[in-house]
Amino acid sequence: MPNHTISLLLFLSFYTLTTTTIYAIPPPPPIQCTSETNDCTLHNSYGIWGDRKDCRASKTIYPKTQDQLLSIVADATKNKYKLKVVSKFSHTIPKFACPAPSNSSLLISTENYNSNIDVDVVKLTVTADAGVGLRDLINKVEDVGLSLVAAPYWEGVSVSGLISTGAHGSSWWGNGGSVHDHVVSIDMVVPATQSEGFAKIMHLDVTNDNLFNAAKVSLGTLGIISKVTLRLEKGFKRSISFNFTDDNGVEDAFMTHAKAHEFGDITWYSSKHTAVYRHDDRVSLTTKGDGTNDFLGFQSALVAVSKSTRATEKQLEKTKNVKGKCAMASTFIGYKKLIANGLKNNLLFTGYPVIGRQGKMQTSGSCLYSPSSDIVSACAWDPRIDGLSFYESTSIFPADKFKDFILDVKRLRDFNPDNYCGIDIYNGFLIRFIKASTAFLGQDVDSVVIDFNYYRADLATTPRLNQDVMEEIEQMAFFKYNARPHWAKNRKIAFAKVDKKYKNFSKFVAAKLKMDPQNIFSSDWSDALLFGSELEKYDGCGLEGECVCSEHRHCSPTNGYFCEFGLVYKEARVCRYLQSSQI
Known about the structure:
Blueprint: H1 3-19, E1 31-33, E2 38-42, E3 56-61, H2 66-79, E4 82-86, E5 105-109, E6 117-120, E7 125-129, H3 134-143, E8 146-147, H4 159-164, E9 183-191, E10 199-204, H5 209-215, E11 224-231, E12 233-234, E13 237-246, H6 250-260, E14 265-269, E15 274-283, E16 292-293, E17 301-302, H7 303-318, H8 322-338, E18 343-344, E19 354-357, H9 358-361, E20 377-378, E21 390-398, H10 399-413, H11 421-424, E22 429-434, E23 447-455, H12 467-480, E24 484-485, H13 505-515, H14 524-530, E25 561-565, E26 573-577
Parallel strand pairs: 3-5, 4-5
Antiparallel strand pairs: 1-2, 2-3, 6-7, 7-11, 8-12, 9-10, 9-11, 13-15, 13-19, 14-15, 14-22, 16-18, 17-20, 21-23, 21-24, 22-23, 25-26
């Protein structure tokens, strides 16, 4: 199919998507059991993992109260069961929530533990049950004229899940963009001695700093969070404008931009030499405007659109059609510019700035909600529809190292800018900002976060186009610049030796030993990630980021992919496609 035809079809598909009433289905439940309670498997919402070989438990329990949580932990402590906690959402990529594969492992779902949201308008706080969804929390807070300042861009998370994994928005202002840095207190149910009833509730706040700082980003390995209290502010609005411009000097401009705009970020479409600066600042409630942020990537997508987009990209991958990928990237970027990437002044985007209440502007996820049971549309990555499938690499840099990383990415880009089109089809490089944190598994200095998504094949054994480029960026970030991974994202190689990257890691381990001495809340899956275990090497392990290749067999030599050195970061070892004349 000619490139211009692909572009036209995709444009018309997305135009239809945003101008038609859509009846969507929510994502599938993450836990699936062979009966109502027995032999259960945990899946993540992208369909990347979840089968009887790994994320399996003998039973799932759905508590509704804190007392029931106490009873569950007491029983597990007494009978030496293993526990893993999940919410009704399952959007993490690494397997921290996977239980140990044995008959003594239980899943605890907080899906039904979500009834209490208590707002204190005098103290400017909100206390919520662990399973409360972020959107429900935001709406309740906004209803009484207050605002939650920090939130991730995606609202498909629970209150306990978002703080446990270090979820964040973007800000170096105030307490910063990480939600856990706005936490006032955490109630956590942990194992206890027999005289204490085998379980107890620990109330954690600044009066017990070490345990509190461990619990703020706990990865579900310390106990069961039962309640979270977050700091609020008086209600406000935000004013957002996107400035599309050349990417010259982006390696210097990011610092000025972060300091100038409270919620600013930068989207970098490197193949097009384009940087999009988000001018995002608070304004008073009296400022005219009732805008919303309905981010295009989180809107419900017509199933036919998702399937055709995926089929097109698969064909381009199969034929190694880089120019076709660049045509897709150009179409998507142009369309995002046309509709302000989902910002709406009212029902449609009519011009900048878009001004609206904080609760409508800070986070989005309209594909989560459904008035219909028919599969007309869904989240574009829903595994039931054969839609999009992608990796997401997210690395966190000290601010003073980020410039050099960007310059390296540019040097690699300049070998052939078209090689970056596969990233720009999705969201380019998203650059955000988080402040230094007291959380032991948070960032100890002001930091810059960079996210990029890219095509994932249906089978782990299938190489992808320009695989070596994405791998070199990934290895530059985590190995050359010693960046830290986002705990809820990334492929396995991002967690290699991660325990060495946190100066307070030993304090986190000490808190874990005190709160969960029997390791009830650990599994081989979570330990391997948390403690940065050495990566196992096997045939094809480099293709999925399960290892860094050191031999050709770790790639796919039968498909022409061989283990080669990086082009800019010479120490990198990547799976590169070589034609017979290059071998």
